What we know:
Order of helices and strands: EHEHEHEHE
Strand order of the largest sheet: 3-2-1-4-5
CATH architecture: 3-Layer(aba) Sandwich
Strand content: 15-25%
Number of strands: 5
Shape: globular
Helix content: 25-40%
Number of domains: 1
CATH class: Alpha Beta
CATH superfamily: HUPs
Number of helices: 4
Oligomer: single chain
Distance between the termini: 34 Å
Amino acid sequence: MKSQQTLPIRHIVVALSEASWDEQALHLAARFARSLKAKLTVLHVMQVPPRRRVDDADEKAVRQAEVLLHHAEEVAREERLQIDTDIIQARDAGVGLVEAVRELGADLLIAAGHWAAHHPQLPLGETVTYLLRHAPCPVWLACEPHLETVSDDTTVGTEDLQA
């Protein structure tokens, strides 16, 4: 087997989406970034409907995003890490994230996902599927176990992720 040399991870981006596993993804990313001495940037994408201009801010959505990113800063302080945060406005969350990751020159994207039971062709949802296909760097996902297909003896709870 041919040995592949790994590239150093110097910049990690975490995409927060208000998914149930955002918190776990953020803690894991912070610990990983600290261990690598990597920069950590936390992003939240606000999807803008077609009837609005992309740069036309929805004040309620901006406040919600600011609360989410403020919480990310608190988590980073708990983990003894300094982070950058940003709100991105885009028509599509996946496209906005891929563009941001490319512009930031990130080496790794970490995203929290969820199972989209209503969308059997894209079981992880449209955004995660887009990220997996188009991100310019590796993508790590933090997802809840799909309990319908996980047997009782292999179920992992969130408490198992706490280090």
